[in-house]
Task: inverse folding
């Protein structure tokens, strides 16, 4: 496990904050996935500043939207592929009308909070995600900012797991 | 009191967030200063988003630094005058060495958090401010972000009081 070599772009595909990616490279090597998660949590919650959180949020496509239509993303093809995979359940349970409603609420959310609605979507249906969006919309901005950062961390952990698996299998991760 | 007329630039001089200033104009007229403060708190903590908080923070000069040397400020001459007045005690108690130390810690703070150290400085000496800066430097970014927003609110309240006084006296506030 110690022999796995990670680059900044690997970590950036897990969480789109430059500071996060650089600090992870500094913290490497990791003896295990669990060690990497401990380091990632410390870096994300204690070292990345609020602008870094906003930077990471902007790397995500709007939920319910195909990552390929998210032109502003500075991240790799791997990031888009992962994002799509994490929304499999949501996309399978979506209808035109729920997708339309999701799109409208996403706009309202972004107008209120200034960043995209972020949720750990793996295994969650579109109606569930929509209900959560409406519930969270009522929060005050700082509270919602902290919740979004927590969701980002869950997404990061899942992606780190995929990264470790891919690296262990010897495949190149970031050249999709 | 009901006859006092405020413009967006008046409120912007109290708190340098465009959204804050616009919402205050929408919430006006105010029957009293206390009513204005209630509205201002609600707007600042519940309506202005995290980017608006960062925007307001950038309107401040670094503490211990003359506002006139703060070229990036988009705010009025009134904002600079008020900022200088609020630092009267700090400036009177400053020595070259404490100012030098304050400047160094300000840089460290800004590097960690991504925004200027904000403190309600009225009546506080430079050594007090320096001790507070060092203490707050240990916070994690989100905690410090919320503390800074609280300090901004105290500054806003003091400036709203000055604004009400100036308006009641019939003087033009924002053309210093």
Result:
């Amino acid at each position: 496990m110690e022999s796995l070599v990670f680059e900044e772009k690997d970590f950036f595909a897990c969480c789109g904050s430059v500071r996060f990616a650089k600090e992870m490279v500094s913290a490497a090597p990791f003896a295990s996935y669990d060690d990497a998660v401990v380091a990632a949590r410390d870096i994300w919650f204690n070292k990345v500043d609020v602008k870094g959180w906003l930077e990471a949020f902007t790397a995500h496509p709007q939920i319910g939207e195909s990552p390929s239509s998210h032109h502003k993303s500075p991240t790799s093809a791997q990031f888009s592929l992962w994002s799509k995979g994490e929304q499999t359940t949501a996309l399978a349970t979506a209808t035109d009308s729920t997708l339309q409603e999701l799109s409208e609420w996403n706009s309202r959310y972004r107008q209120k909070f200034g960043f995209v609605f972020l949720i750990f979507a793996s295994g969650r249906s579109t109606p569930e995600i929509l209900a959560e969006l409406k519930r969270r919309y009522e929060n005050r901005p700082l509270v919602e900012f902290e919740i979004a950062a927590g969701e980002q961390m869950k997404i990061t952990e899942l992606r780190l797991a995929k990264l470790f698996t891919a690296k262990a299998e010897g495949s190149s991760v970031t050249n999709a």
Q: What stands out?
A: The CA atoms of residues 117 and 146 of chain A lie 12 Å apart. The mean pLDDT of chain A is 87. The two ends of chain A are 23 Å apart (CA to CA).
